[in-house]
Amino acid sequence: MTDPKKPDQPIGDDWASAMAEQEGGNAPSAADDDPWAEAMAEQAAAEADSAAAEPPPTPAPARAAGDSVFRPLEQGGGSRGARDLEMIMDIPVKLAVELGRTRITIKQLLELAQGSVIELDGLAGEPMDILINGYLIAQGEVVVVEDRYGIRITEIITPSERVQKLNK
Which residue of 59, 108, 117, 144 could cross-link 104, Cys pair, CB 3.0 to 4.6 Å? Predict the structure, then answer.
């Protein structure tokens, strides 16, 4: 039987020669069988020779990653910080003063009419919450200035106090 692309060569010659090698004991040697083992042995020998010739390298002193990643702050960097702060000064924020809160049902909401009174959880004389973009930042008391309401800040809320208020 012949290959149509190679009519002068029989198909089975490669298989026949491989089978004959295996049966005849012409198997490859151990070094030919595992070239990685030979390469690893050569590498181990080379490393042993270099280790005997050279003293072990001394480790470099440890450095913080920040030294190479972040540039150090300069002493005269105050003007740059002020310039960066100026960039955000004109960003508008929403300030709200909250008298109190309550929960009502939809039925109660639909029954509300002009003149209805809604009871809030805030007490009279209690400081009002001052919210910036929905976050509590201070507390204050209501004042009237020239027939307009205002709020006088009495306490600035620290970040730890903000977290405690969220847990209520």
Answer: 108
Model pTM greater than 0.85? no
Measured CA to CA in angstroms, residue 76 lies from 11, 79, 145 at distances of 84, 7, 44
The tokens for 20 are 């004959």
Spatial distance between the Cα atoms of 71 and 52, rounded to a whole number of angstroms: 42
**Residue 44 in tokens:** 């181990």
Per-residue pLDDT in tens (0 to 9) along the chain, 168 residues: 555 565 565 555 676 777 777 776 554 554 456 778 888 888 888 877 766 665 656 666 666 665 566 666 665 555 666 677 788 888 899 999 988 889 999 999 999 999 999 988 878 888 888 999 988 899 999 888 888 888 999 999 888 877 776 676
Q: Are 141 and 164 in contact (CB under 8 A)?
A: no
How far CA 91 is from CA of 5, 82, 133, 156, 161, in Å, comes to: 79, 16, 12, 21, 26
Element (H, E) at 167: none
